[in-house]
Amino acid sequence: MDLNVELSDSVLQHLREVADLPDLTGTRYQLQEEIGRGGLGVVYAARDTQLDRRVAIKVMDAAWAGEARLIARLEHPGIVPVYESGTLPDGRVFYAMKLVAGAHADGYLAGNPPLGERLRVVQRVGEALAYAHNCGVLHRDLKPRNVMVGPFGEVYVMDWGVEGVAGTPAFRAPETSLDQRSDVYALGALLVFMLPADAPPALGAIAAKAMRRQPEERYPDVAAVLREIGRFQDGLAVEAHAESPWQRVRRLAKRNEVLLWLLAAYAGVKFLLFFARSF
Prior knowledge:
The protein has 9 helices and 8 strands. It is an alpha+beta fold. The protein folds into 3 domains: 18-98, 2-Layer Sandwich (Phosphorylase Kinase, domain 1); 103-242, Orthogonal Bundle (Transferase(Phosphotransferase), domain 1); 246-279. A 5-stranded antiparallel β-sheet has the order 1-2-3-5-4, covered by helices on one side. The chain has a 3-stranded antiparallel β-sheet with strand order 6-7-8. A hairpin with a 5-residue loop joins strand 4 (82-87) and strand 5. Helix 4 packs antiparallel against helix 7 (222-233) and helix 6 (201-210) packs antiparallel against helix 7. It starts with 8 loop residues before the first helix and ends with a helix.
């Protein structure tokens, strides 16, 4: 019998995936299907047989076991809760968490949401980051694929990194020693990604300051970025953007649009009354 059979790449990939399937024997979970792969592990959908619900199961090498403990410390509406963790017979570790429905940030943008909604997503991400920083936790790999937007507008920050995670080049700060300002850089890169091509210059300036090469030249923390975005939304000048006189006039006009319309209407009525009396 000739055993020198060449297998196609697709067959080999399938065999690898089957070999990697986690053995959940002895747990409360029944494996369903793979739903994603990342740098630290594979995520599967599974059924929780005790509570009769679908959950997500992330399986990774034992070296990354700290990720589950790290995420379990974070209790925030924008961070997916961890239900349970454990070790598989082959030595890999797993943790069960909420199965999030929705689209990654890149898929969300395919629907061309308005600017206000895009900024809301960035703000929810920033709020989760600020909370994590307050708990002493960095994300280390913030990018569009790690942001989920649910069908009811929920925003979740996924795949929190652990020490040693390299991050994704387009969203990674240039420094090697990471701190909160490294996540500020990534948040600025996410803001750039979320903005439409015709975004107001002030928003581009906020992102540019968050992404400055030298950490000390960036915003000091995520809260400062959120304040700047809030000032833009309130029609106020932002620190990062030097306005021209014309831009200042336009901003003030937009901020006081209702008042200007009322004044214009008042002036129009006064003119009509004056014109009527003249006859």
